[in-house]
Write a structure and sequence with these properties.
It comes from Arabidopsis thaliana x Arabidopsis arenosa. This protein is of the alpha/beta class and 342 residues long. The chain contains eleven helices and 13 strands. The two termini are 18 Å apart. Bound molecules: adenosine-5'-diphosphate (ADP).
């Protein structure tokens, strides 16, 4: 098969650039087909256990059909919420040692970003997403260490819409309000309040959430019981706005403005992570609200994880490739068919 040649030829290159990536990890998650979709028409040609993914262009034939991408991990359509979280867990642990961790979900609307981060519901344990599982782990870990370190956990919840930051937990303060929490239940309660505030002004939650970034910052402060030394760590859980490109001809007015703001902030995020991955001396944080909000938690002693979410169907091929290209750019690993066919 054609794609096997691409994989062989790119493995060496991939290993060479791997070192560049430092603390940036990229996991790709493929959404399953939804009810009513034709399962035969997929653009996913191959997924390998070592993070390889080959997509096929439905409009081309021969060697130009395939394009290889490689990430730290690829989660197939059958993957469970638990499996996905298992590989995220070590990062969560590091927060208690004073690291800043950012976890993003990136992809077109409908690709499963919210499914991965929040889950389809929080009532069923197996459905729960990264947000809940991460916070649950965090509380368990703080409790297990409480004889040596006293931890305090504070949570915020904001939405970034049209380059404006809105606090979803309080209307009264200029900066995002910080809420002290002692358990996952406390956090769930806040999340519900935030969720209710998010729908204000939108007909449905989905309508609004696809066009705004939702950011859940978690700040951890630990005091060593013996030495009284203080350490701080943080976790930012970010469900990004839909990355689909909206043509100028398709929308006007308010929708066009929204689309431009989304484009601007997602490319600013890409530029920042790219600059960090390549250890560039200048990191362009100032170019969007999103990167300004995250400035202190990206870079330095920070760990970044990006879930790139893709749809399995052929019709999404163009968006899928654009999503995967964004991901390979931020991870510093750009492969693709072009290099294997000189
Ligand atoms: P996004 O947040 O990217 O717009 P959603 O998370 O809302 O996308 O997912 C779109 C639809 O696909 C939802 O109905 C969701 O329940 C479903 N879905 C997404 N990912 C999965 C998955 N891994 N397993 C089952 N259903 C999924």
């Amino acid at each position: 098969k054609n794609y096997q040649i691409i994989i062989e030829e790119n493995r060496r290159l991939y290993n060479e650039v791997q070192e560049l990536k430092g603390n940036i990890r990229v996991y790709c998650r493929i959404r399953p087909f939804l009810q009513g979709q034709n399962k035969k028409q997929t653009s996913i040609e191959y997924t390998g256990e070592n993070g390889e993914l080959v997509v096929a262009n439905p409009l081309k034939q021969g060697k130009d059909t395939y394009r290889l991408f490689k990430f730290n991990k690829v989660f197939g359509p059958e993957s469970t919420q638990e499996e996905v979280f298992l590989d995220t867990r070590p990062m969560i642990r590091s927060i208690l040692d004073g690291y800043n961790v950012c976890i993003f979900a990136y992809g077109q609307t409908g690709s499963g970003k919210t499914y991965t981060m929040s889950g389809p519901s929080i009532t069923s344990e197996e459905d729960r997403g990264v947000n809940y599982r991460a916070l649950n782990d965090l509380f368990h870990l703080t409790q297990s260490r409480q004889n040596s370190v006293m931890y305090e956990v504070g949570v915020q919840m904001v939405e970034i819409y049209n380059e404006q930051v809105r606090d979803l937990l309080s209307q009264d303060v200029p900066d995002a309000s910080m809420h002290s929490v002692r358990s996952t239940e406390d956090v769930l309660e806040l999340m519900n309040i935030g969720l209710m505030n998010r729908t204000v002004g939108a007909t449905t939650l989905n309508e609004k959430s696809s066009r705004s970034h939702s950011v859940l910052p978690v700040h951890v402060r630990g005091v060593d019981v013996k030495t009284e030394s203080v350490l701080r760590g943080s976790l930012h859980l970010v469900d990004l706005a839909g990355s689909e490109r909206v043509g100028r001809s398709e929308v006007t007015g308010e929708r066009l403005k929204e689309a431009q703001h989304i484009n601007k902030s997602l490319s600013a995020l890409g530029d920042v992570i790219f600059a960090l991955a390549h250890k560039n001396p200048h990191v362009p944080y100032r170019n969007s609200k999103l990167t300004q909000v995250l400035q202190n938690s990206l870079g330095g002693q920070a760990k970044t994880l990006m879930f790139v979410q893709i749809n399995p169907d052929e019709d999404s091929y163009a968006e899928t490739v654009s999503t995967l290209k964004f991901a390979e750019r931020v991870s510093g690993v750009e492969l693709g068919a072009a290099r294997s066919y000189k």
